Amino acid sequence: MKNGVINIYKNKGMTSFQVVYKIRKLTGESKIGHTGTLDPDAVGVLPICLGKATKLVDFLMDTDKQYRAVMVLGTRTDTQDVSGTVLESMEKSQVLEQLNGESGAEEKILSAFEKFQGVINQLPPMYSAVKVNGVKLVDAARKGKEIERKSRPVTIYNYADIHISGLDESDNPVKISFTVDCSKGTYIRTLCQDIGSFLNVPACMESLERTRTSGLDLSTAITCEEFEKEFKEGRGEDYIIPTDAFLTKYGSITATDDAVKKLIYGNWLIASDFEKIPDGETDGTVYRVYDNKENFYALYRYSQRDRYYKCEKMFYEVNN
């Protein structure tokens, strides 16, 4: 298999690790990684990096995300979603009373969302992969332990398509579906619980779909089952996005034929090793480096003081 990224749509019930394991077993590629864990009950975009593209993981994890979520008012759980143990519950009539009744509920809910916009502080949930002093919080939570942890800033850029249901006399609970654009590290189930706390009602997340991450969205996503079928029919590589497609924020330069033998081993390069270098380049500028056949090799950083280019990340397989 060639290096690159598969835009997998993770279905409900699978862990992110299980997706990686399945793709590894299918392709025979030992180097595989994903760009951000999705909980087993969550679905959506899960980019899978193959081969040298695993070096993209840090780049791709450091990107903004978009989610479509549903929160339910009236229930708070230990996991902050509906799969957890209920810690607090409230009758629907009490929820509506806290929300100023059916007529005033929508305005109060929307004002709460406005409060949770911009830079906010979140306390990482105990049921998460965050580590505190080397201990993964979820491992401690499963043993019934609570670990002291600090709030950290995350950014909520925008909400869209906020829809509120259950503001009537039916037995249906009050639910709020919404789309949110946010920074990396944002826990949407924590956001749901915190919005509920602001409204003075217990709340948790009912469902979550990641609709965009790492520059990829639902429009090009393929499920594991679909990819397996395509792979077995010889079309698997059609779904592998080239590594350099995720690095277009960097300019590109082309190495000479003679310089390629140095390039493949990540050696320092000088101006004469390139076909043409940009005018007025500045110290610290990073470039995508190609050969004359447009094969992508590495990211190189220019040092103005030393007047050479140093390898930042090598993406080329020497045995290609």
Any idea what the shape is? Answer: elongated
In percent terms, what proportion of residues is strand?
25-35%
Unreliable segments of 5+ consecutive residues = none
The end-to-end span amounts to 11 Å
Number of DSSP strands? 19
* Count, helices: 8
Helix and strand string, N-terminal first?
A: EHEEHEEEHHEEEHEEHEEEHEEHEEE
Main sheet summary = 11 strands, mixed
**Rg to the nearest angstrom?**
24 Å
Helix percent reads: 10-25%
Mean pLDDT: 92
The structural class is: alpha+beta
Please sum up the structure shown.
The chain is of the alpha+beta class and 320 residues long.
Please characterize this protein's 3D structure.
This protein is α+β, with helices and mostly antiparallel strands. It is 22% helix and 33% strand. It has helices at 16-27, 57-61, 92-98, 101-115, 137-142, 188-198, 224-232, 260-263; strands at residues 4-10, 32-34, 43-50, 65-73, 75-77, 86-89, 118-122, 131-132, 135-136, 152-165, 175-182, 203-213, 216-217, 222-223, 240-241, 251-254, 286-290, 296-303, 308-314. Strands 1, 2, 3, 4, 7, 10, 11, 12, 13, 14 and 15 form an 11-stranded mixed β-sheet that branches. The chain has a 4-stranded mixed β-sheet with strand order 16-17-18-19, with no helix packed on it. The longest helix is centred in the middle third of the chain and has 15 residues, at 101-115. The mean pLDDT is 92.
